[in-house]
UniProtKB/TrEMBL annotation:
Removal of H(2)O(2), oxidation of toxic reductants, biosynthesis and degradation of lignin, suberization, auxin catabolism, response to environmental stresses such as wounding, pathogen attack and oxidative stress. This is Peroxidase. Belongs to the peroxidase family. Ascorbate peroxidase subfamily. It catalyses: 2 a phenolic donor + H2O2 = 2 a phenolic radical donor + 2 H2O. It is found in: Secreted. It is an enzyme of class 1 (oxidoreductase). Residues 35-337 form the Plant heme peroxidase family profile domain. The gene is LOC113713421. Residues 1-23 form the signal peptide.
């Protein structure tokens, strides 16, 4: 009996102190997320979720825009090389930073918040929680703190040792994209039309720079005329913010009605001709039946939007993650070890 108890104790100890990915070899996050599961840090860093949330609560209280910025960081990371925190790497002798790409330069922000989260985690759980997982958790918690849905984030990503400035320039959809461009960009990442429309709903919070929507105001089709789908009063207001030349960094809310509240107003505004970016409005006006139908459905039913947004965020967060022995756990999110 005593021998049996010793054996059972040894088995339990091996289970508790092994790599979590070995403890749960088939994952615990459900089918479709091999190697990633919400309990990944259950034994190695049980405080991880709490630490991320505590830093974000303070950061977003000080700057409500930060929620949208962190959500966008995760999106721009996952579309380039997969969800591997490559977007966080600074220029170095071996790295051309993705921060310098067209979609990112003078635009993406929130790096200091990620740095603070990483520093806190390194104090409590050294060399344990990846920067890629921090981005995924920060995107979820930013959504929740803005009034949006909660979801269990599958974890276990590792960090890349490389970045791709060229892919950052080519793989992130442009704000003036046509509906077919958008569908193609998302399909390349394994995301469908439902994911496209739901994830676009992240634009219910945040702002965009004048340079990203100027074309709609002054030269939509190369004939020096505005985009006629813009509602007139909204159009006049945007012209006051965004002149024909200059003011590239002037900003306007993506959701003019509730710019810091995560809700379904974004879709209602599109129905009224008040989608800020071309890539927003074409979800309705691009003559693709499925995206038109989804815009109307999400405008009518916020809970439906929240449910699909959560599912699509989990799906996006599973784009080509590095797991197991691939990549590394960076000590500093801005540089490789």
């Amino acid at each position: 009996m005593a021998t049996r108890m010793v054996v059972l104790s040894l088995i339990l100890a091996a289970f508790l102190f092994c790599n979590p990915s070995q403890a749960f070899p088939f994952g615990r996050g459900g089918a479709g997320y091999p190697g990633l599961f919400p309990e990944f840090y259950q034994f190695s860093c049980p405080q991880a979720n709490e630490i991320v949330m505590s830093v974000l609560e303070r950061a977003i209280a000080q700057d409500p825009r930060m929620a949208a910025s962190l959500l966008r960081l995760h999106f721009h990371d996952c579309f380039v090389q997969g969800c591997d925190a490559s977007i966080l790497l600074d220029d170095s002798a071996t790295i051309q930073s993705e921060k310098n790409s067209g979609p990112n330069k003078n635009s993406i922000r929130g790096f200091e918040v990620i740095d603070e989260i990483k520093a806190r985690l390194e104090q409590v759980c050294p060399h344990t929680v990846s920067c890629a997982d921090i981005l995924a958790l920060a995107a979820r918690d930013s959504t929740v703190l803005s009034g949006g849905p909660h979801w269990e984030v599958p974890l276990g990503r590792r960090d890349s040792r490389t970045a791709s400035l060229s892919k950052s320039n080519s793989d992130i959809p442009a704000p003036n994209s046509t509906i077919q461009n958008l569908i193609t960009f998302f399909q390349r990442q394994g995301l469908n039309e439902q994911d496209l429309v739901a994830l676009s709903g992240g634009h219910t919070i945040g702002v965009a720079r004048c340079v990203t929507f100027r074309q709609r105001l002054y030269n939509q089709n190369g004939n020096n005329q505005p985009d006629m789908t813009l509602e007139r009063t909204y159009y006049n207001g945007l012209k006051a913010v965004c002149p024909n030349s200059g003011g590239d960094n002037n900003i306007s809310p993506l959701d003019i009605a509730s710019p810091v509240k995560f809700d379904n107003t974004y879709y209602k505004l599109i129905l009224y001709g008040k989608g800020l970016l071309n890539s927003d409005e074409v979800l309705l006006t691009g003559k693709v039946a499925r995206t038109m139908e989804l815009v109307k459905s999400y405008a009518a039913d916020e809970s439906l939007f929240f449910h699909q947004f959560a599912n699509s965020m989990m799906k996006m967060g599973n784009i080509k993650p590095l797991t197991g022995s691939k990549g590394e756990i960076r000590n500093n999110c801005r540089r490789i070890n």
